[in-house]
Amino acid sequence: MVGASGDSRDDRSGCIAYPFGRGKPAERASRAVRADATVSCMPSTLDHVRYETLPFGSAEREAAELTHPLTLTVTCSPKHGNDHTLEVAARLRALGHTVVCHLATRMVSSPEHLDRLLAGMRAADLHDVFLVGGDHPEPLGPYARALDLLPVLREHPDAPRTIGVTAYPEGHPMIAADVLADDLRLKAPYADYMVTQMCFHADALVRWLEQVRGEGVSVPAVVGLPGIVDRKRLLEISVKVGVGASISFLRKQHGIGKLALRSHSTAEQLLAEVAPLRGGALGVAGFHFFTFNRILDTVAFYERNGLSEPGEVVTVGSVR
Fold first, then answer.
1. Quick one: pLDDT at residue 43?
2. Beta strands 162-167 and 128-132: pairing type?
3. Residues 6 or more apart from 251 whose CB is under 8 A from it?
4. Residue 48 in contact with residue 313, Cβ under 8 Å?
5. Model pTM score
6. Rg of the chain over CA atoms, in angstroms?
7. I want to staple 285 with a disulfide (CB 3.0 to 4.6 A). Which of 89, 154, 195, 220 is the partner?
8. Which DSSP string do the residues of 215-250 spell out, in sequence order?
């Protein structure tokens, strides 16, 4: 069990606005970005490194074995639902970690269900939401996409302290690129940050960031990166999540077919390319690791490679 996570951190500290232009790795970055544009700030209540967990299997055991508090996120799947995500998140919070709940829009069955979820989060000292559309085939209630729920969340009496939204630098197999771009522009005013799909290509990420910044999307970006995983673990997760949900997730992660074959040297190379982007011109505020519940291995690998020191937090201030 880890110590207290320190959620008393001041979220009204000074704020850094990042000017667009050349940034690290700037040698590959285009200069065709508005020079006068700025990026909003990452809420200081969230660490710049976060580790995604799945709400089953070894997640809670591994989280309990961590030697220092981290920011963990808990996913939601069609098989388990938002209520189960909340239950697991509450137990992880009780271990001393800062925990971000994934909230699947299409699995919120009614305004009353949303009331219960947000009240449960507040009671469990959970204040941060990562809003996703969700892979349920049909909406269970009146909310079909994140844009339907974002304004409601912002105005709710139990509104989360921070709200993150999804972003797809390498596209989505089921959604056209122009629709994705419009959707992000509409979500951005309600969001504190955006989290990208799993990144495998630093150049594609840089090109996308330049594009969206040039289009006026100013929310900080948290870059999704692969954790340490093997084929056996991917198969186990497919069974527990459900084959349909697993296929849907995998389709969204361009290049994930190479994930189980990825060597540590390849991971180190990717990290070396994307880590310098944090705090630079393109507004990368941090990293979101898809651990597939290999939390201990993923944390050890990335801390060993110098990405973070235990307990290091974002200090660039609050957007609100």
1. 66
2. parallel
3. 173, 174
4. yes
5. 0.79
6. 18
7. 220
8. TT--S-EEEEEE-S--HHHHHHHHHHH-HHHHHHHH
Tell me how far CA of residue 279 lies from CA of 17, 66, 83, 250, 308, in angstroms.
10, 27, 35, 29, 14
Residue 14: per-residue pLDDT: 30
Q: What is the pLDDT of residue 173?
A: 72
**DSSP string for residues in the chain:** ------TT--SSS--PPEEPS--SSGGG--S-S-TT-EE----TTS-SEEEEE-SSTTHHHHHHH-SS--EEEE---TTTHHHHHHHHHHHHHHTT-EEEEEEEGGG--SHHHHHHHHHHHHHTT--EEEEE----SS-SSS--SHHHHHHHHHHSTT--SEEEEEE-TT-BTTB-HHHHHHHHHHHGGG-SEEEEEEP--HHHHHHHHHHHHHTT--S-EEEEEE-S--HHHHHHHHHHH-HHHHHHHHHHSTTGGGGGG--HHHHHHHHHHHGGGBTSTT-EEEEEEE-TT-HHHHHHHHHHTTS--TT----S----
Report the pLDDT value the prediction gives residue 10, as an integer from 0 to 100: 34
Residue 116 has a pLDDT of: 98
Which residues in the chain land under pLDDT 50? 4-37, 237-250, 253-257, 259-263, 309-320
The contacts of residue 151 (CB under 8 Å, 6+ apart) are 190
Alpha carbon distance 303, 298 (integer Å): 8
Which pLDDT does position 137 carry in this prediction?
78
